[in-house]
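Figure 6 in text form: structure in, sequence out.
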């Protein structure tokens, strides 16, 4: 699914398939980590009024989710898990206050060791899914054509694309956030990989039968 596709139903189908795509990866703990990230963490953050923030254990779980749903880089998990609680709290508090200025919000979080723009985007998306989508490889490829450049500049281009697509899809009557767009793109990409793998397995088994 490319961003130029404007059929709202295709986007709704891709988004509704998100949970089953998570399950299809058969990765230990991914379903529970995803439930924590998408369902529990947002309400936990928003209950902390008047100054929302996240804690070190929450950042650690968020990193586990990010690495399990994407590429596993254990050193990043070690880095964030060892950050002082007050440091994480202060940085996230400043970042959430900076929104909707995404650039400033990301900069407030990337002072933390092991937190780059992609991890910062996951923190911001948990708090404000209507503003800042998660910078996943799959959505980056769909929106910008590549996923190699994890810079703030690239993320801001990504945010613009997904915010525009969310507005376009929402104009049809259904409410889409930039984070909904990211999940739909991720779901579509994973679905395509699963289908491709299934086709390859089918061809392989047919060849074996012919021998």
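Output sequence:
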């Amino acid at each position: 699914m490319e961003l130029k596709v404007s059929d709202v139903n295709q986007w709704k189908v891709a988004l509704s398939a998100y949970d089953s795509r998570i399950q299809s990866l058969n990765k230990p703990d991914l379903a529970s980590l995803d439930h924590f990230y998408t369902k529990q963490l947002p309400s936990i953050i928003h209950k902390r009024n008047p100054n929302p923030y996240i804690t070190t254990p929450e950042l650690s779980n968020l990193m586990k989710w990010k690495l399990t749903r994407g590429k596993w880089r254990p050193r990043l998990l070690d880095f964030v898990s060892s950050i002082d609680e007050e440091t994480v709290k202060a940085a996230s508090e400043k970042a959430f206050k900076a929104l909707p200025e995404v650039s400033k919000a990301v900069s407030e979080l990337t002072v933390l060791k092991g937190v780059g723009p992609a991890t910062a985007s996951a923190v911001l998306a948990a708090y404000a899914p209507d503003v800042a989508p998660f910078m996943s490889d799959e959505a980056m490829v769909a929106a910008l054509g590549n996923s190699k450049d994890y810079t703030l500049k690239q993320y801001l281009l990504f945010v613009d694309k997904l915010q525009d697509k969310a507005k376009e899809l929402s104009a049809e009557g259904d409410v889409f956030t930039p984070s909904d767009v990211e999940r739909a793109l991720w779901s579509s990409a994973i679905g395509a990989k699963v289908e491709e793998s299934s086709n390859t397995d089918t061809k392989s088994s047919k060849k074996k039968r012919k021998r």
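Caption detail: Residues 178-210 form the longest helix (33 residues).
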